[in-house]
Design a protein that fits this description.
By secondary structure, the protein is mainly α. The protein has 5 helices and no strands. The longest helix has about 70 residues, at about 10-75. The radius of gyration is 32 Å and the shape is rod-shaped.
């Protein structure tokens, strides 16, 4: 075989070299396309799932912060008429948060994310319960106690 290579004419050697060069170029193109496909899949995951999860989590955090502010406003309100719209807004926010938590749960696919959401739900339960207790205190006319409860108990649970 070695002798055969030595007897090749220049034209044949050039054709063989050109053929090998084209084969390497095709191999590089295939490897590049596979890499682009992988990047495309990663980008799609980020834009369709991961980004959406981030937006939902931020919405939940914003609404929870608003609820803490609304509870403080309720505790400072001097009449039931002032508290009713605040309570309605709190209820609407709670319903929205519940929906967003369910939506977020459906988007999670990694175990770590599922564990974090479970921990958040566990910590959220006493916080939500506190809403009802503060509203009940306010309905009984115990404004100072409700304000103290918001400060000492509700706000720390928000964290």
């Amino acid at each position: 075989m070695l002798k055969l290579n030595m007897k090749l004419k220049v034209q044949q050697r050039l054709a063989l070299g050109d053929g090998l060069l084209v084969a390497f170029l095709v191999a590089v193109a295939v490897v590049g396309l596979v890499g682009l496909n992988t990047n495309n899949q990663i980008t799609e995951t980020i834009t369709t799932k991961d980004w959406k999860k981030t937006v939902i989590a931020n919405d939940i955090a914003t609404l929870a912060g608003e609820n803490a502010r609304l509870n403080l406003q309720m505790a400072l309100a001097t009449s039931r008429e002032e508290r009713v719209p605040l309570q309605e807004r709190l209820g609407a926010n709670k319903t929205t948060i519940d929906g967003k938590v369910a939506e977020l749960e459906g988007l999670l696919y990694k175990e770590k994310g599922k564990q974090l959401l479970a921990a958040m739900k566990e910590k959220r339960a006493p916080y939500v319960k506190e809403f009802a207790e503060i509203s009940a205190m306010l309905e009984r006319g115990k404004r100072e106690e409700a304000a103290a409860e918001v400060k000492s108990d509700l706000v720390p649970k928000l964290d």
